[in-house]
Structures are given as structure tokens and as C-alpha cells.
């Protein structure tokens, strides 16, 4: 793993130099989430315990093993900006559930609490985002295979089920301009954004000049509104797409080989 300064401070002609860091554990599973206030949630495959990692400080918190109906789990890290608390939500993988396990960091809590979701659903992959105190993640309804977005308010611990506006690319859940967004599977130039995060859950769309779903993995967006893409072959560079100017630029990581990048990414 590596930590770099803000992407926006570099131009396409400047390289990014990696800062090598040791990944905790030999077999760790990283969920498809951004870091939350500098923290990253990981699952140790050997012990089946969630880990909360601060790569900048080199600190690691090992959480107790949660009691789940499945050996495999999905974990999501959230942050409540009002109370300044981090919470980890844990679900069984690919099994219908109506409860989740919640762990509050820094509270002296020694075991997982059970919180009702009020909506039976299953979580197939750890694809989620924490935006303004709410965790959003992809799930499936208990009956059938219809995909939905579930929301979990970190402070109130209340869940909502949000219907998707269209069929979406299930690996395209990102944060864009401070809102949850996803790419339409029937129109790769269309980006859906969750405009109303209240009970109404209104979506709006924006069409761009260039397809947003390419032969790259969409990781998110910068504060400047550029989309961040990583090659599927784990080559040591990233692509940034500016939808306003319809332009691309590449940032290359120097001092690291393709094999090393594939192992650390």
C-alpha cells in the first residue's frame, strides 16, 4: 500500500512517488470503500476478524470476531460528523438478513451490538460509500434478484431501502460532488446521482460526452470533479477524466514495478 498527496496537485507530466507501507496480515480483504476520515476497514481472512487500519499513523485495531450466519462477511466503516464517532457495520455475505452487527470505535465497547435493519436483504459484495454520516451499500431484495441501495445512518442507526432509478453497473457506486452516484448499465454516458437523501430518495441524471464505464475500474472522483480510473491489469498508473472539458490525463507511479503495484493495490 502507499499514501500520496492530493491528486489535484499534480499535472499529467509529473510522476507520483509511492510511500511503501506494510499491509497488516498476510491475507486481508479490502472492501470497496473509500477511506473514512483516514481509516480503512479490512477483514483478516485467517482469523475472520475485522481490522480498522490507520495507514498514516501505522496503527491497527483488531475487532472481536462477530457472530454471523455465514463464515464470510461484508464490513462497512462509517463516520458521524456530529458526534465524531466511527462505527463498523457487519453483514453475512450472500445471505438474507434482517439484522446487522455494529461496533462503535473508541466507546469501550467489547462486543458487537445487534441492530435491526427493518428490511430483509442480502449483501453480495462490499461495495459502499460513507457520505455525510450515512453509509450506502449495494444489496439485493430478499425475494428475487433486484438490486437496491441500502442506507445506514451512522448516528441514528436507522436503515432505508432505496430503489435504483435504472439497472446500474454494480461496481460503479461512487461519491460525486458530495452525493452518491452510479453509472447506468444501459447508457454508459449517464450518471445517476441521489439528489434527495431524505425519505423521498429522488434521483437525477447527467449525460456526459464520453462513456464513463470503460476498460478501467472506476474508483471515485476528485474534489475537482474528475473521475478516477484504475486499470484492471493493475498497471502503475491511474487515469483521470474531466467530464466538463471531456479530457483525460494520466498520472504514473514511479519507483514501483507492475508486479509490485498489482500486489499492493
Can you summarize this structure?
The protein is mainly beta.
The CATH homologous superfamily of the largest domain is termed Kelch-type beta propeller
Number of strands: 20
CATH architecture of the largest domain: 6 Propeller
Average pLDDT across residues?
Answer: 81
Main pleated-sheet profile:
8 strands, antiparallel
The dominant shape is globular
* Proportion of beta-strand residues: 35-45%
CATH level 1 class label of the largest domain: Mainly Beta
Give unreliable regions as ranges: 1-13
- DSSP helix fraction: under 10%
Descriptive report:
- This protein is mostly beta strands and 265 residues long.
- It contains 1 helix and 20 strands.
- The protein has 2 domains: 19-163, Neuraminidase (6 Propeller), CATH 2.120.10; 169-265, no CATH class.
- It is 3% helix and 44% strand.
- Strands 5, 6, 7, 8, 9, 10, 11 and 12 form an 8-stranded antiparallel β-sheet that branches. A 4-stranded antiparallel β-sheet has the order 1-2-3-4, with no helix packed on it.
Task: Give the helices and strands, then pairings.
Blueprint: E1 28-30, E2 40-44, E3 49-54, E4 59-62, E5 73-80, E6 85-92, E7 97-104, E8 113-122, E9 128-131, E10 134-141, E11 147-153, E12 159-163, E13 174-176, E14 179-183, E15 190-194, E16 203-207, E17 216-221, E18 227-231, E19 237-242, E20 247-252, H1 258-264
Antiparallel strand pairs: 1-2, 2-3, 3-4, 5-6, 6-7, 7-8, 8-10, 9-10, 10-11, 11-12, 13-14, 14-15, 15-16, 17-18, 18-19, 19-20
